[in-house]
């Protein structure tokens, strides 16, 4: 009987812990996300969605800019996770590659701009404490992380775009040009 009581307590404790996490989200990141989404949508409304779409289309015509500058701007200004909403300005065939590039950049930006992804800060702090213990400068590491991140997101963006277009062509039996 004692075992059953312990199992029942453990079972309900799991859901109580889940409830605590949920309350933490409701009082923590969710209000920030809601306000940020509202602000971004308001700004788009003020500027005009057609203008914003034209600017985004011009900024993403070039494949290099599409998978470097565009994701960097998204992650820097909107931070993780709302940065992925920048994908709404892209044609469907580019959205998976933009997501891949953006997701891949949320850590490398943290060394220079911790606000962009506070959830990943513990990784940077762990690595930087080891570098500090060795007496090496953190600034150089942060810049190298950033540059390496830009190179990686460009490669991932291009490869994912090519794979997406290939898969779309296979599925639709038609040509979707890059």
TrEMBL record:
Matching entries from PROSITE patterns are given as: PTS_EIIC_TYPE_5
Question: Which residues are the signal sequence here?
Answer: none
Record key words, sorted: Membrane, Transmembrane, Transmembrane helix
GO CC terms: membrane
The UniProt entry, under Pfam families, shows: EII-GUT
What's any GO biological process attached to this entry? phosphoenolpyruvate-dependent sugar phosphotransferase system
Recorded superkingdom: Bacteria
Query: Transmembrane: present as a keyword of the record?
Result: yes
Residue ranges of the TM segments: 21-44, 64-87, 142-159
Q: Which NCBIfam families match?
A: EII-GUT
Q: What is this protein called?
A: PTS system, glucitol/sorbitol-specific IIC component
Lineage runs: Bacteria, Bacillati, Bacillota, Negativicutes, Selenomonadales
């Amino acid at each position: 009987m004692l075992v059953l009581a312990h199992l029942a307590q453990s079972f309900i404790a799991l859901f109580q812990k889940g409830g605590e996490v949920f309350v933490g989200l409701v009082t923590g990141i969710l209000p920030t996300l809601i306000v940020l989404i509202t602000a971004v949508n308001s700004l788009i409304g003020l500027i005009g969605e057609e203008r914003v779409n034209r600017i985004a289309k011009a900024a993403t015509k070039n494949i290099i800019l599409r998978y470097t500058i565009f994701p960097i701007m998204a992650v820097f200004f909107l931070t993780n996770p709302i940065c992925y909403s920048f994908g709404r300005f892209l044609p469907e065939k580019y959205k998976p590659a933009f997501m891949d590039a953006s997701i891949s950049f949320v850590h490398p930006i943290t060394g220079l701009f911790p606000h962009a992804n506070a959830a990943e800060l513990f990784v940077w702090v762990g690595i930087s404490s080891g570098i500090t213990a060795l007496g090496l400068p953190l600034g150089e590491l942060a810049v190298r992380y950033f540059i390496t991140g830009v190179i990686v997101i460009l490669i991932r963006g291009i490869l994912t775009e090519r794979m997406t277009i290939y898969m779309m062509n296979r599925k639709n039996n038609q040509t979707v040009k890059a």
